[in-house]
Amino acid sequence: MTLGMSAPGLPVIVVAGMTDANNSWEATMVEFPLHDEASAPDDSKALLAEVKRHNGFLPNLYGVLAESPQALAAYQATSEQFLRSSLSRAAKHVVWLT
Fold first, then answer.
1. CA 95 → CA 83, 90, 91, distances in Å?
2. Tally of CB atoms within 10 A around 13
3. 48 within 8 A of 37, measured Cβ to Cβ
4. 3-state secondary structure of 20
C-alpha cells in the first residue's frame, strides 16, 4: 500500500491486489481517493467533519470510504453498534486492532 496523488491532485491510497479476469488471476493496482471534508461528496462531508471533531484527526479509512456516502454511513453505523456491544473495553481494542 502506498500513498500517492491522483491527476486532479487528490491524495490516493494505492493497493496491489489480484483480479480474476477471464478466469485467470492477474495483478492489479487499485487507487482509492483519500478525501477530506473539502473534497468529499456532499453526502459524506457532515460525517467526516463529525469524525474529525471527535478524533482530532480524520482516519484514512474514513477518507477512503467517503467516496461512497453509503459505504461511509454503513461503516459508521457498524462501528457504533460494535461500541455498544457487551465486550470489555480491552476486548474491543483487540478486535479493532485485528
1. 11, 9, 6
2. 17
3. yes
4. strand
- What residues pair up with 5 in beta bridges, in sequence order? 11
> 8-22, pLDDT tens digit by residue?
567 776 666 666 666
Closest CA to 93 of 28, 83, 84: 83
Per-residue pLDDT of 29-86, as tens digits, reads 778 899 999 999 999 999 999 999 999 999 999 999 999 999 999 999 999 999 999 9
**Helices 89-97 and 69-83, packing angle to 10 deg:** 150
pTM of the model: 0.71
- The CA distance from 3 to 15, in Å, is 9
Three-state DSSP state, 44: helix
- Exposed/middle/buried for 67, CB within 10 Å: 0-12, 13-18, 19+? middle
